[in-house]
Amino acid sequence: MPSSSLTDDGLVWQVALVALLMLAIMLLRNRRLSVTRAALAEREQQLRLITEHIEDFFWLSDTDISRILYASPAYERIWQRPMTELYARAEAFLEAVHPDDCPALLEALAGHRRGEPYEHEYRIRRPDGSLRWIWDRGFPIRDADGVVRRYAGLARDITERRALEDALRSLNSELERKVDARTAEMQAANAALRESEERFRRLFEDARQAMVLFKGRRVTGANRAALELLRLSRMEQLLGRVPEDFSPPLQPDGRASADKASEMLRLACEQGRYDLEWAFLRADGEPGVLQVMLTPMRQNGRTEVHAVLVDLTERKQAQERVDYLAYHDALTGLPNRVLGRDRLERDIHAARRHHAGLAVLFLDLDQFKYFNDSYDHQLGDTLLRRVAERLAAHLRGADAPCRLGGDEFMLVLADLETERAVAEVTDTCERILASLSETFIVGETQLFVSCCIGIALCPDDGDDAETLMSNADAALAEAKKAGQGSYRFYEPQMNRELRRFVETRDTLRLALPREELVLHYQPQIELGAGRVVGVEALLRWNRPGHGLVMPGDFIPVAEGSGLIVPMGRWVLNEACRQAAAWHAGGRPGLVVAVNLSAVQFGQGSLEQDVDAALASSGLDPACLELELTESMLLRDEPGILDLVRRWRTRGIQVSIDDFGTGYSSLAYLKRLQVNKLKIDRSFIVDMAGNQEDRAIVQAIIEMARTLRLKTIAEGVEDATLASQLRFMGCDEVQGYLYSRPLPASELATWLRQFDDRSRSR
């Protein structure tokens, strides 16, 4: 029994020992399995990083290729379809395949399902309709027993390569036909073509975006785009280099490039990503700016930093140009109004601190529009640049000119002695006027320029930029009234006039929509027959709170603000409409005279406005008379001549208003082909007691008769004067002797009474 018990105990111990050994083996296997799984997880992460950074589309599926287990982001870029669709239906990518390529691809996939690798090229159609060529390679993934557990594949967009290959095949075929007898040369050509094909293949396979790999601070890899960005010819010129080798010593923030490069690489590793702008130098020394996007990549226990480089140089230069143009005049390079105002504020603060004087000068070129109209805008632009240069050359270094717009400039004279400010500014104005009066030579053209200057002094005329600029502008307006080559210092009453102008302008702007404008008509009498032959339409303004306003109080404002254009259009339409109504009411042949403004001629649509007024009213063109002034006719003689001729051809009558007050010329009167001269009232009023006025009137009448023109005298207020004019040969008259200007309704009554008086005589 004891020996038997011992035997049993030995057996138990043997069994226990075997169990322990098996347990140890299992634990060791589990530990190794755990290590293997960790390694596999790390390998999977590495593979995922690689697949997400390559240009090709990588996929992984189950054994019957019915479900996609993984697809890299390149699918969406190449197929331009969402990956969600691919994960939902593995066959989604087949739906994009060109119908002609489907059978061959399906056959390849069938072999793939049997465990055979495949390599195939086919076409896909993107949602936008474009076709792309795809190279696709699939292979089975087997376990240790050789059983297929997964299928994987790699797809690449080879559209550009196929295009090159097609071109090369076409070239090869052509060469083969021509050089069949020269086999040796053909082989050499084919070798060269294959080399060229491979070179182009590499170019298209490389990423277009510049990319660099860093290990530590040194470059361990780069693509061709990076070499091109840095203007290097060989990879050896870049490998092993550090960022500061291609950078200025200091970055824009003042930090050393070497220090900042070390920090950016460190932050990228710590934060998982780091983006920044970087000033760099190309190999030829040209500076630029990069957007650098850093991403750390960890593999096999080592870390490399992947850098994507985007060249911002052109964008930065464009932005700098935009910023420059925001504060500078593009034509002259001078500061514009915005920058000029800022600098003026700065100079005002400096003058206040140093108890110094300061002057703001507004300068406007006289008759600059003449240069653009007589020559061309290119010459006008050149002239403005020359004026800017001359202004800058005749000012002190601290006195900065700026261009406000058009032909208007602003000069700031700083650091003036308060007691001598007026004298210093006067001297500067005289120098500017003298400088600009010197001949400008533009090409082969000699140009003569003058200007007007308005001046506001600080602190007497204001102690802020807005007030000083406003007062200098008011002084400029007064200088322009004084004539060419004038300058004026600001005086308080100028602002009162300016405020009155602005108030009138703003109120007048509402006069048309509020129907506050009305026409009054003054009869025109034919002296020989004693009958009414026409009326002159005269504009009035029923201004709220002011009553009936005469044209002399608002027409200059309308002309100065441009409102005369829509107002003049309304006058033409209303006068033609009323004349047509009188004709329909039994006054056929009655002529309506309408005054035209020089501003209407300048805006370019006057001819169309006249045509529209006649068309809408149905008025006979022969019953419309347009009154022009002498000065207006002499501004642009060729253009006016053509327009007057067209009006005369249509039958429209044309008269010269206020004749005798301008620069009368028999030559231009003959060329203009007008119908009538209107003798200014200044000669008529004192004609009875002033021999010179009487002689002028007689001369005008005789001249008109010689040129076969009619004459009309305005301002006739007594019968003696009318008789004398009839004796002198004047054709028509108008004035208070017959009637003041009347509204249309009152004029109708007056016409009936005039007819009754005429019949009773």
Automatic annotation (TrEMBL):
One of its GO terms (molecular function) is transferase activity. SMART domains: EAL, GGDEF, PAC, PAS. InterPro entries: Biofilm_reg_signaling (IPR052155), EAL_dom (IPR001633), EAL_sf (IPR035919), GGDEF_dom (IPR000160), Nucleotide_cyclase (IPR029787), PAC (IPR001610), PAS (IPR000014), PAS-assoc_C (IPR000700). It is a multi-pass membrane protein. Residues 356-492 form the GGDEF domain. Residues 501-755 form the EAL domain. Residues 154-206 form a coiled coil. It is an enzyme of class 3 (hydrolase). This is cyclic-guanylate-specific phosphodiesterase. The keyword Nucleotide-binding applies. NCBIfam families: GGDEF, sensory_box. It is found in: Cell inner membrane. Its EC number is 3.1.4.52. The chain crosses the membrane at residues 12-28.
